[in-house]
Amino acid sequence: MVHLHFELREGIIVASKSLVEICFHGRGGQGAVTAANLLASAALQDGNKGVQAFPLFGAERRGAPVRAFARISEEEIHLRSEIYNPDIVIVLDESIMEIVDVLKGVKPSGKILINTRKKPQDFEFSKQYHVATVDATGIALKYDILVGGIPVVNTPILGSVPKILNRVTLKSIQQAINSKWTTKKELIERNVNATQDAFDQTEVNF
Q1: Residue 148: band (very low, low, confident or very high) from pLDDT cuts 50, 70, 90
Q2: Contact status, residue 162 vs residue 126, Cβ threshold 8 Å
Q3: Rounded distance, CA 206 to CA 94, Å?
């Protein structure tokens, strides 16, 4: 089934088959906004003509629920609104699902990527949605990707994205990491290795 996205262009509503909308759910300090920005940068390198990345501003204290968004399209993007019906939901902190309805508005064919030690089939909603899982926290700890002693899971979980989205390659995600931290070679190496590890460990139910 093909799901159409509708955009307003010169006062006319038109359908776009190529637009993919992504919502990141996490907590303050986990890097959700950076993840969205890196994903958009990688998508641009992979030849997508339209990319967007933006946060939903609200409580920004460490540990508070945070949402960030990304749009990827083969065409120029004219939308400027928040994403209400994502194609993909990326959950950086499994515990956020106890207080936030991360499935709200997800399209019937939606894909859910979760940072967890569980398997996709362990989630009841895997009967309804495509689910992928990866232990991004464990990978962040393995590669010492920490801020104030707290694992930062944004780059590890990005390594899983190419398993569920064919618009972005692992190579481009790693290049985006290189571009962000150009002078910090040791930091780049740890984050790049983390993305590869996550890619290899990701489990999917589709």
Answers
A1: confident
A2: no
A3: 20
Domain that holds residue 27: 20-204
Residue 4 lies in a domain: no
| Cβ neighbours of 90 (radius 10 Å) | 31
Distance CA 87, CA 79 (A): 15
**d(C-alpha 193, C-alpha 98), whole Å:** 31
Local structure of 173: helix, strand or coil: helix
pTM of the model: 0.90
CATH of the domain at 53: 3.40.920.10
- pLDDT tens for residues 92-101? 999 999 999 9
The pLDDT tens digits for 45-66 are 999 999 999 998 655 566 789 9
Cα angle vertex 13, ends 7, 15, to 5°? Answer: 60
Task: Give CA separation, 57 vs 10, 41, 175, 187, in Å.
Answer: 28, 21, 28, 28
- 18: closest CA among 51, 56, 55? 51
The reply to whether 2 falls in a domain is: no
Token digits for 77? 């993007």
Single-letter code of the amino acid located at 150: I
Report pLDDT for 56. Answer: 82
Sheet holding 20-27, edge to edge: 50-56, 65-73, 20-27, 88-91, 111-115, 130-134, 203-204
